[in-house]
Amino acid sequence: MVLRLAEALQVPLRERNALLLAAGYAPLYRHTGLDAPEVEAARRAVELLMAQLEPYPVLVVDRYWNTLRMNAGAKRFLALFPGCDSGTPHNGVRLVFHPQGLRPFIENWEMVASRMIRRVHREAADNPSDEVMKRFLEELLSYPAVPSRWRTLDLDGAPPPFLTINYRWKNSTLCLFSALTTFGTPLDVGLQELRIETFFPADEATRTAVNRLTDRAF
Q1: pTM of the full predicted structure?
Q2: If we measure between CA atoms, which residue out of 148, 160, 55 comes closest to residue 108?
């Protein structure tokens, strides 16, 4: 009955395990890392996407937006911004909110950040047993100059039909939008929560600039 109710309500697999535990049963769904032999086919699919989408930036992230993998296009793009080209794993949302991350380079930062914080609010609400997500939300809200009104999920504001992230670089603006790819029929917590985020140019000038990043002299 627990599983039937969870399926009807489209409860995420992580929360289904929590419901099973609360009902006195063992968790049903595994949480497998992308490097595990059991998910080799999924890993190959991810690597194929990352390679085929070059030179556009591609990030593979977990449920907390921690970067698990990135392609060469993403590394080249982050290298445009001082302090953001570290080879160590990073968190995409934290990078946008942190004063020493991408925040100083995003012209429309408040609009972008407000949409991101709304997504984190919804993730926290959809996964009430996830204390890590709750702490992550509090961390983002604690950064300097983050509006206090963002502590409440905004359900009234009409979102724009299309949102770009406008990066200030040299004397120009690079405008990109992102698309998320997920697995269609995952039965593993890790695979269900994995997201492949690809950043595409929103105008011809940005497309030209991204394509030319493969030239080291650019």
Answers
A1: 0.86
A2: 160
